[in-house]
Write a structure and sequence with these properties.
- The chain is α/β, with parallel strands linked by helices.
- Helices cover about 35% and strands about 20% of the residues.
- The longest helix has 16 residues.
- The chain is globular and about 55 Å long.
- The structure holds adenosine monophosphate and manganese (II) ion.
- The site of manganese (II) ion has 6 residues, from loops.
- Adenosine monophosphate (AMP) binds next to strand 11 and strand 12.
């Protein structure tokens, strides 16, 4: 704990001595990475720093409201005139266990810049000049909150919402084992600072399009149960989204349905991202460590939420993963 406090102090010192700062996170950002980056950005800009947030991949629709000033840029669609002549003295890498997980953004991280690595993945590669890594933290959002508290920063209601959203989503709405007493008391403080649990829940979880719900119906119809009811998977093939007219920015969270069936221990989502390429999202209830499974296939993550991408079509990807699960159990 004392070590972490020292690291936070060093981070604050480094911020003080730097003007231009790049903030980034793992490709295809999720609720924790989005909320954390935006809250950190608000803090740095209030210190009159020049900042940019660049991620590879689009913002899922459910999180767009957290970024009213459109601060987060998608590396894949940054206009030519807004190129990367931005030379940061410091790069914050949030919620990202390795530099490879930055995807293309890795190319715009100058070799000479100092890296501040803030993460809660247990397999973090400690690649930073400073590494603030706490696998016990339920979300990076909570770590950003600790940083701002240490500084004595007056957190705005918007920032409280961004941090709360990070924690809300990474704890599965306070339903996973990482939803500790400390996490909930931090969230109580965030509510006092202006976070609005009702609006956040409504915007993040109860804001789907009709097309999405129809798609979900079909996906659930096709749900596959294996391994005596212990494994359940859902699948999104390439044509399904266009068939239903659903934007791929809306499908984040579908994997959660793989754990809805009573008795299931491992839940999976297979998404055909392009021909011959399948992304696998893995979830589990406490006992089974899905990060071990993901690692075998070059992926990673946490004990109860992990992912990997296979260069196989859907059928082959499923076979390979299910065979591996059988070997584990
Ligand atoms: P997802 O299934 O995409 O929601 O990801 C769940 C968790 O697994 C997150 O903590 C991700 O950072 C991690 N993860 C997902 N895909 C990969 C990958 N290809 N390599 C490493 N970690 C991943
Ligand atoms: Mn996280």
């Amino acid at each position: 704990m004392r070590m972490m406090k020292k690291t936070i102090e060093k981070i604050l010192d480094l911020i003080e001595s730097t003007q231009r700062i790049l903030i980034t996170s793992h490709r295809d950002p999720d609720g924790d990475s989005i909320g954390s980056q935006l809250a950190l950005d608000g803090f740095l800009r209030s210190l009159a720093k020049t900042t940019r947030i660049v991620n590879q991949g689009c913002l899922p629709l459910r999180y767009v409201f957290l970024d009213p000033q459109k601060r987060i840029e998608n590396f894949n669609s940054v206009p030519k005139e807004k190129n990367f002549n931005f030379k940061p003295g410091v790069v914050f890498v949030l919620e990202c266990p390795s530099l490879d997980r930055l995807g293309e953004v890795k190319k715009i991280v100058p070799a000479e810049s100092r890296l501040i690595n803030i993460d809660h993945h247990p397999d973090n590669e400690m690649f930073g000049t400073l590494n603030y890594v706490d696998p016990k933290a339920p979300a990076v959002g909570e770590m950003i909150y600790s940083l701002l508290k240490e500084y004595g920063f007056a957190i705005s209601p918007m920032m409280a919402n961004q941090i709360y959203a990070a924690i809300l989503t990474d704890t599965g709405r306070f339903g996973y084992s990482n939803a500790s007493a400390r996490c909930l008391s931090n969230c109580a403080e965030l509510i006092r600072l202006g976070a609005d649990p009702k609006i956040l829940t409504e915007k993040i979880y109860f804001n789907h399009s009709l097309a999405f719900l129809r798609l979900l119906g079909t996906i659930l119809q096709r749900l596959e149960v294996k391994n005596g009811g212990k494994t359940c998977s859902v699948t999104i093939d390439r044509n399904l989204l266009s068939e239903f007219g659903v934007n791929n920015k809306e499908i984040e969270g579908i994997v959660d349905y793989s754990l809805f069936l009573g008795g299931v221990e491992i839940g999976l989502l297979f998404t055909e991202t392009e021909k011959g390429k399948t992304k696998v999202s893995l979830r589990s209830h406490n006992a089974f460590d899905v990060s071990k499974l993901a690692k075998i296939f070059g992926g990673g993550g946490h004990k109860n939420a992990a992912g990997c991408t296979l260069n196989y079509d859907l059928a082959k990807a499923k076979k390979v993963i299910f065979d591996q699960i059988l070997k584990f159990s």
